[in-house]
Amino acid sequence: MRTAMANGIITELKRFATHDGPGIRTSVFLKGCPLRCGWCSNPETLDSGPQLYFIASRCRECGACVEACPEGAVSMDSEGRIDREKCSLCLSCVDSCVYGALRTIGEQMTSEQLMMEVEKDRPFYGEDGGLTLTGGEPLFQPEFCNAMLKACRDRGISTVLDTSGYAPPEVVEEMMRYTDLVLLDIKHLDPKKHREGTGVDNRLVLENAALMASMTTVRISLPLVGGFNSTEEEVRAIAEMAASLGIEHIDVNPMHCLGRDKYRYLGLTPPPEKYNTPTKVELKRAVAVIEKLGLKTTIGRMM
């Protein structure tokens, strides 16, 4: 049966991924996210539209981009090169740059085009591999993701949804019909603390966690963040919630600061360094707390 086609926008298609679900997978990073986590290392996935990336270390100051820009938004005299207020995103500067200092973030695709890319990787999936939709936030593009998940189900390709769980329950329920495994971020159980760290409270997240667990297999992803959710009590609360829903596995993913340069590439100011990478003591303690409740755990995603 032919699945209806939908349009979407992605930031990256990663082939041969091994940490985004079981087996070898094609991971599709979708653009757009309603959360604003204070430790986010993928700022290029936050905005839902195309963006301009400028990597200063690759620039050879040839001036081709200055000549190409019809808005006069590019200058050799400014540190960031791009006047983001003047820029109309015509992307003429990207076409003119032969050194890769300027590039576009965000590619428009139809679900049919993306399925053609997924099919190219199918010989490598084996019994366990398949498609993983991640982000950003896949639930932010529900029609596109549903079309992809349905198409994979029709063709016998395994599906994984990597999500924050922040979306209307009706969106989640529809998507769960075609999802084999959910990798669900649970950041904090306290609604006030959750809002402080992410910009939204966790009511929808927790409501959807129960809904997801009732419909398919769920594996919790705990982004362990020093100064936010790394105390014994905070980790235990998340583990107890998971156990109460019959979820058996929690992946502990320590916060890192490897994405801060990306903010500069986008002409953005990195978030304040309010949070930090968890210590070895905090990491070891988190694993012990989870295992004490009888749950399986890994540091990172080792499927």
CATH architecture assignment of the largest domain: Alpha-Beta Barrel
Arrangement of strands in the largest sheet:
5-1-2-6-7-8-9-10-11
Q: How many DSSP E strands?
A: 11
Q: Roughly what fraction of the amino acids lie in strands?
A: 15-25%
Number of domains: 2
Distance between the termini: 32 Å
Structural class by sheet pairing and helices: alpha/beta
**CATH topology-level fold name of the largest domain:** TIM Barrel
- Radius of gyration (Å): 20 Å
Poorly predicted regions: none
Average residue-wise pLDDT: 94
Short descriptors:
globular, Alpha-Beta Plaits, 31% helix, single chain, alpha/beta, 2 domains, 303 residues
How would you describe the overall organization of this protein?
- This protein has 303 residues and is an alpha/beta fold.
- The chain has two domains: 7-48 and 106-299, TIM Barrel, CATH 3.20.20.70; 51-104, Alpha-Beta Plaits (2-Layer Sandwich), CATH 3.30.70.20.
- The protein is built from ten helices and eleven strands.
- A nine-stranded mixed β-sheet has the order 5-1-2-6-7-8-9-10-11.
- Helix 3 crosses helix 4.
- It is globular and about 65 Å long.
